[in-house]
Known about the structure:
Helices cover 32% and strands 22% of the residues. The chain has 477 residues and is of the alpha/beta class. It folds into 4 domains: 4-126, Rossmann fold (3-Layer(aba) Sandwich), CATH 3.40.50; 161-278, Transcription Regulator spoIIAA (2-Layer Sandwich); 285-398, Transcription Regulator spoIIAA (2-Layer Sandwich), CATH 3.30.750; 403-472, CATH 2.40.50. The relative contact order is 0.09. The structure holds S-adenosyl-L-homocysteine, iron/sulfur cluster and FE3-S4 cluster (F3S).
Amino acid sequence: MDKTFHIITFGCQMNVGDSDWLARALTARGWRQAPEEGASLFVVNTCSVRDKPEQKVYSELGRLAVHLRARPGIIAAVGGCVAQQIGRGFFDRFPFVRLVFGSDGIAGAPDALDRLAEDPTERIALLDFLSAYPEREDVLKPLAHAPLPAFDADAGEPDAGPAQAFVNIMQGCDNFCAYCIVPYTRGRQKSRQPDAVLSECRQRVEQGAREITLLGQNVNSYGLDPSQKGGGAGVGFADLLRQVAAIPGLLRLRFTTSHPKDIDPQVIRAFGELPNLCPALHLPLQAGSDAVLKRMGRKYDREKYLGIVADLRAARPDLSLTTDLIVGFPGETEADFLETLDMMERVRFESSFSFRYSDRPGVAATRMTPKIDEAEAQARLLRLQSLQNGITKETLKSLEGREAVVLLEARSRKQDEGLTFWRGRDEAGRVVNLRLDKPGSGESGVAGRELAGLMVRARILEAKNHSLVGEKVGQPW
Ligand code: SAH
Ligand code: SF4
Ligand code: F3S
């Protein structure tokens, strides 16, 4: 078969990071990325966190199988959390699936895919959990280009490679929150060696990364693996954060996700001390009622959470806080739910991901009663989202007229009266659609130029429901 592939990714940033690595590993082995219509191999990287994304995987594979009629030789690989959960079951249900791999197995996926390119009739399952963080082959060949020029926020600068990089610092989770399937699909917590983390971060910065996001299901317990099988080598998350932040040329550092029970006062302090640590934190609250938090097994209460928020805001007053919330957890009463709304108003999260509770196979909450009626849970979700939308709007509105530094990501779909818009993110990660010059006006030469990766100073002109519109300020290009 010809070595062309197309990756489809569902789920969290861990999956996005994994797909990114796999694409680079395959490219280094002579595979070529192709659009869906032209690919011989489909890789579907899956999420199992709720029933809906799991079902989406089956419908997606059904949809992809349609290509078999036109191209009978095509094959598929299924990776990520549903692959770990269902495993070889995929071979029976979708015969064109020839590889399943879990989060530890992904390290062996490029070899397995090379074997399948030779013999596409084979079936390979990479589902074992390993006892230490499975270091993956290094696919970041140093680029032969001159060192990056000094950063100048007014003028912007050309980008030498991908400006945003995700770097894994750990795998798995040991928390077993009552609703969550992740500890089963991603295995036990395993911290990556700090040297490996630092050297990948340095390499990414040398290749042009301006922004690094450190990834793990629970980054605040980095280095504290209960098994301690080499995990972390005595370096905690606060230390790691400082070491990464000190890499010359790194302009923005982020991390996700943080469990409130584990956030260290030193990490809170770092928000006030490290200039390149972005003023943004995703701190999943899940529920506002102490009784529900207890049944969820979250190991913090309202008071503790509010204390952390106060400390964070004291360290960094412009910190943008975002969160995850679940409504309709088994046994959630109207009074419990009102406590979630109350927490939302107290903390004033800038935005949140909110979900209706969904039973997952094997997790503790599946056996908890009473289950909340679906219509009731849906009504609570809408009430919560409507409160959030109002708070989001007010927060964004308060930024009108302010200045921000925006890292440009892609040309925006927004086109207005001949103006070109680029989409980027400010320091806190808010989406900013930036008005640039009139295309083809000649005065700037920006039209048609690849701007992704540029950092520009902007003034915020207008707040939309979930994003900002700004204009570039300062020197011409
Ligand atoms: N490791 C991260 C989040 C992992 S899952 C953390 O602990 O914060 C992402 C989000 O999905 C969770 O924060 C939770 O809000 C939601 N989630 C997980 N299991 C769920 C379930 N069974 N039903 C509904 N939402 C769920
Ligand atoms: Fe799931 Fe809880 Fe672990 Fe997050 S901390 S991945 S919600 S078990
Ligand atoms: Fe989903 Fe697995 Fe991430 S269940 S949220 S892809 S860890």
